[in-house]
Write a structure and sequence with these properties.
heterodimer, A: about 130 residues, alpha+beta, Immunoglobulin-like, four-stranded mixed beta sheet, 3 helices, about 20% helix, globular, B: about 300 residues, alpha/beta, Purple Acid Phosphatase, chain A, domain 2, six-stranded mixed beta sheet, 8 helices, about 25% helix, about 20% strand
Chain lengths: ~130, ~300
């Protein structure tokens, strides 16, 4: 898949208005940091979506490669006593969490299929990938 | 092989590093030296001979409150108190970054207030923990007035040219610290035309030499910067970030990293991650705030390092 195609998929499209709104506002980000909602995430198609958790421990993403279905919400949880910051490896503007202190969470909904490389922008040797089918 | 006069210059390069608190740096005849902050015979000797002296603290991480140190403000305060004791023979203080843990205004407030107690002009460079919000602007405005917009600057004092660099921003996946093309272009211009006899002190947060790539302890585009520094007779590169003393000499370039005032980190590759060393027995933290005596041994290329804890 071409890089430009991947990068475009990070950006919520008009058709994903609900998601775009949630991602574009500080309130949306703050909400993303709260503990995972028991209620399923609603995608633009109105279908129930899965949620997957990536744990950060000892400067490592686990799992380092995660495969989810389109529309899934991925939540990173920082178990380190060192802050980490999740950022897209290919386009820093596409996904960027606030600094995650110990036990902070960051959620991101992957609306389009693709391969999304990410890293910790504070400790760039920490890398992972989310594959969306 | 170094020239004979170079060897002689390094023979008098003798450093006493006090891990965890601060260093007294002196420049005599263009030769940077460092001494521990407590009153020792060596420090007194350095004081008597000093033309220019300055202090370094690093990695205060105000806001960190986990094992092994739940009072980082307290340990910074202790370090600053020792700096203050030496202020009569120090021209300035440098802080090599990670002033705060999370770039929060309250953390900046606390650090600024404590460090002001040193009674010295203080020159900062950012650590990656200091630029987490708004592209680093809050840190630059508060701690680096007069710096270039990207967070770097230079100045002269006592005949020494000081260069403060920012290598903690716009980092790339899988990469190391990074200076970037704009800063490199500025540095080349800043150094151009300076006499090779002028002592240079470069300070930046992440080491400008490859300490341990697996943990990101290095700067990926430092080689270019160092290439412009090699023509100078005396270049001292001071860094923090790795929370332990390390030293390397490359020709006329001497690299030093300072210890943190907050917590120690493991030696490269000795732990699963570079996170704080948490499992210290009670009382062990301050025993890590020891000294290292680093000196040139005649006939040897590299400096000898001898570490001595303050509290066995």
């Amino acid at each position: 898949m071409r890089l430009s195609a991947i990068m475009r998929r990070w950006i919520p499209l008009p058709g994903c208005a609900l998601i775009a709104c949630a991602l574009a506002t500080p309130a949306g980000l703050a909400g993303a940091q709260s503990p995972p909602q028991p209620a399923p995430v609603v995608t633009e198609a109105g279908a129930e979506a899965e949620e997957a958790v990536i744990t950060i421990d000892n400067f490592t993403f686990a799992p380092s490669q995660l495969t989810v279905a389109r529309g899934a919400r991925v939540v990173w949880v920082n178990r380190d006593d060192t802050p980490h910051l999740i950022a897209s490896a290919d386009d820093l503007q596409a996904m960027r969490s606030p600094p995650l202190d110990t036990d902070d969470r960051f959620g991101f909904t992957f609306a389009k299929p693709g391969t999304y490389r990410y890293f910790c922008s504070l400790h760039p040797h920490m890398q992972g990938v989310v594959i969306v089918h | 092989m170094p020239r004979k006069d170079d060897t002689g210059r390094r023979q008098v390069l003798e450093c006493m590093l006090w891990a965890g608190t601060g260093l007294l740096w002196t420049v005599r005849g263009g030769v940077p030296r460092s001494a521990l902050l407590t009153g020792s015979a060596q420090a007194a000797e350095a004081e008597a001979a000093a033309d220019l002296a300055f202090m370094q603290i690093s990695d205060s991480h105000i806001g960190f409150a986990n094992r092994p140190n739940t009072d980082t403000a307290g340990t910074l305060g202790e370090a600053v108190a020792l700096v203050r004791q030496q202020r009569e023979r120090a021209a300035l203080l440098i802080h090599t970054g990670d002033v705060s843990h999370l770039s929060r205004p309250a953390q900046f407030d606390t650090a600024e207030q404590i460090i002001r107690g040193a009674g010295l002009d203080t020159y900062y460079v950012p650590g990656e923990h200091d630029v987490l919000t708004d592209g680093g602007k809050p840190f630059f405005e508060r701690f680096m007035p007069g710096a270039r917009p990207g967070g770097w600057y230079s100045f002269d004092q006592g005949g020494v040219h000081f260069v403060g660099l920012n290598n903690v921003m716009d980092l790339r996946a899988g990469g190391l610290g990074r200076l970037g093309t704009e800063q490199l272009a500025w540095l080349e211009q800043d150094l151009r035309g300076r006499a090779a006899s002028q002592p240079i002190v470069v300070f930046a947060h992440i080491p400008l030499w490859a300490v341990y790539q697996d943990w990101g302890w290095g700067t990926e585009d430092a080689a270019q910067a160092l290439s412009w520094l090699r023509r100078f007779g005396s270049v001292t590169v001071l860094n923090g970030h790795i929370h332990q003393v390390m030293q390397k000499v490359e020709g006329n370039l001497a690299f030093h990293t300072a210890m943190s005032t907050a917590f120690p980190q493991p030696a490269p590759g000795t732990a699963a991650s570079p996170g704080p060393i948490r499992d210290l027995p009670p009382g062990r933290l301050r025993s890590l705030l020891g000294i290292a005596r680093i000196r040139q041994v005649q006939g040897r290329q590299h400096l000898a390092v001898v570490d001595s804890p303050l509290d066995a």
